[in-house]
Design a protein that fits this description.
Elements lengths: L1 H10 L16 H11 L3 E5 L5 H9 L3 E7 L5 H7 L1 H8 L4 E4 L2 H9 L7 E3 L8 H4 L2 H10 L8 E7 L3 H15 L4 E6 L5 H11 L3 E3 L14 E3 L6 H5 L4 E4 L12 H4 L5 E3 L7 H10 L2 E3 L3 H13 L1 H17 L3 H13 L1
Parallel strand pairs: 1-2, 2-3, 3-4, 5-6, 5-9, 6-8, 7-8, 9-10, 10-11
Length: 342
């Protein structure tokens, strides 16, 4: 994280006025020393970074404080409620709460945040997605995977646990009607690649690892690609016909479905989306997302859209529209900080 932040700072227009340091441990003495040394005008914590000693000490020292792009999930509030007296005392020290969704605002109010300091401004992270879409990425991926014309691709990203077998089951049903479809499966954790290899081999599908394609004189020939790299998932979504985002058919809270939606792809996801309800809401509003109950329904609906590619393209356009409509949240969060500084 520190190296990533430093790289981003070097690439930014504000690099001359920006310093990147490790945060102190949330003890009173270390928080007090860090704040006394840095002497900030404002302490802005992001998303779920609620650090009691930082916030209380900053408030005591007259430093403005804010929670920006704040979110409190359905799962996490259960833990916060167990330490409610500490949360109430901490949140009294925060001058502004700029939350992602109305439900986040309601939950942090339940935790003790003063209602007159709370506002809802959307998810600033999603403002970045459109800037990350690069047509050259799509062409690069098409060349890498040797895709011809509009060869159909079923992309399963951030797959976790039991979803590995579910996706292989779904693909087995798809190829009975559409043998030309390629499966690209990306586990959430790269070390699961070998387990996926076992499942694919058991079904008799030809397969290759993504890293195989980096070797000299190796090109894609298999019908299943196991993506065993880190950092390529969003670019790979660009060549998909249909995308399933994992962590959602198992009770793990889902993944960021807008990373696929920004490419104009129809996005499938399961019932467990607790950690990305804001993204789900955006797709629900435009009709760009397709929620399924289980593997059986995923197979049925995937087959329908492979049978009707023009409808899949329409759903994909609605998915991208959801991302476009969310633009501007980062500016709204920034305005909260600006008001505190004036």
């Amino acid at each position: 994280g520190h190296a990533f932040a430093q790289r981003k700072i070097r690439q930014s227009r504000v690099r001359k006025n920006t310093t990147c340091v490790f945060a102190p441990v949330d003890f009173i003495a270390s928080a007090r020393k860090a704040l006394s040394t840095l002497k900030p005008d404002i302490l802005a914590c992001l998303e779920t970074e609620i650090w009691p000693n930082w916030l209380i000490e900053a408030h005591r020292m007259g430093i403005k404080t804010a929670l920006i792009n704040g979110r409190i999930s359905v799962r996490s509030i259960k833990g916060y409620i167990k330490i409610l007296p500490l949360m109430k005392e901490t949140l009294k020290s925060v001058d502004a709460f700029s939350m992602i969704r109305a439900s986040d605002a309601e939950r942090i109010k339940r935790m003790g945040a003063p209602g007159n300091r709370i506002e809802v401004n959307g998810n600033a992270k999603y403002d970045l997605l459109l800037n990350q879409v690069d047509g050259t990425d799509r062409e690069k991926m098409k060349r890498l995977y040797k895709l011809i014309d509009n060869q159909p691709v079923f992309m399963a990203g951030s797959i976790r646990g039991a979803e590995e077998k579910i996706i292989i089951d779904v693909y087995e049903k798809i190829v009975q009607s559409h043998p030309e479809v390629i499966l690209m499966i990306a586990p959430r954790h790269v070390e699961r690649s070998r387990r996926i290899e076992e499942l694919v081999r058991e079904r008799g599908f030809s397969y290759q690892f993504r890293t195989d394609l980096d070797k000299e004189n190796h090109s894609r020939t298999a019908s299943v690609i196991i993506i065993d790299t880190i950092g390529e998932l969003q670019s790979t979504y660009s060549i998909a016909s249909i995308v399933f985002c994992g962590g959602s058919l198992v009770p793990l809270g889902g993944q960021n479905i807008l990373e696929a939606a920004v490419w104009g792809k129809p996005v499938f996801f399961g019932p467990s989306m607790e950690d990305f309800l804001d993204a789900k809401d955006l797709l629900d509003k435009t009709g760009g997302g397709i929620q399924v109950r289980d593997g059986r329904e995923l197979a049925e609906k995937a087959l329908y859209y492979f049978d009707h590619p023009e409808e899949a393209e329409m759903i994909g356009r609605l998915a991208k529209k959801a991302v476009v409509l969310n633009q501007g949240s980062a500016r709204k969060h920034a305005m909260v900080l600006q008001r505190l500084l004036t």
